[in-house]
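Exercise (ungraded).
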Amino acid sequence: MSTGGDMDVTCGCGHHFDAWLWQSANVTTNPELKTSILNGEINMVKCPSCGSKFHVEVPFLYHDMSGKEWIWVYPLGHEKETAAIHAKVGEMWDRLTGSMPPDLRESLEREYKVLVLFGMDALVGRLRSKSSK
Ligand SMILES: [Zn+2]
């Protein structure tokens, strides 16, 4: 499942507006979201006042069920909170797998890559390097 919502965004010009931001993308069920990530269009907003376009970085979950990757992308600048973020992501993963039957849980834990990246560019770089191989 992919999720998102309207959020209050502030432009460099000082204008506030609501924009739809993705908070998670299941690229197996929504492959078009993977395309927007690769094109740098995900969470790109346009200010209705001055017309400038910019990225809004929010904690974002990239889930690829066929590639078995569960990647949290945190905004750049949050690197100093790495330990806390890893702990939180670990907790979310445990909560997710904790509701599953033990054998399924075991195979998920064996097969899935659970990662934390900083900045959407890091995710794009990772996806590009994988697809070119
Ligand atoms: Zn503006």
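Further reading is listed at the end of the chapter. For now, observe: The first helix runs from residue 31 to 38. The pocket of zinc ion is lined by residues 11, 13, 15, 47, 49-50, 52 (CB under 6 Å).
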